[in-house]
Amino acid sequence: MSKEKLKTNKSVLKRFKISSKGKLQRRSVRMNHFNAKDTGSMRRHKRTQTELPGENKISIKHQLPYNNA
Fold it and tell me: Hey, which residues does 35 pair with through a beta bridge?
């Protein structure tokens, strides 16, 4: 019997981070370019990671089998 490893979805691995408490975090939207015209407070607000809503967590965690905190 051969035990097969599960594959990690690399696109999901690049886009999401699992915190030490097991929460899924994503980066803020609209951060690619044209940020110079934003106010300073908006730029600082976009820098923070936001937690993922509950209904998406299960499907994302299935695609990250060995990165569960």
Answer: none
Q: Return d(Cα 49, Cα 53) in angstroms, integer.
A: 13
- CA torsion, ordered 6, 9, 12, 18, to nearest 10 deg: 20
Q: Residue 24's beta-bridge partner residues?
A: 18
Give per-residue pLDDT as tens, 10-63. 999 999 998 888 889 999 988 899 999 999 999 999 999 999 888 888 889 889
For 46, the token pair is 């976009």
| Contact between 51 and 22 (Cβ < 8 Å) | no
How big is the chain, counted in residues?
A: 69
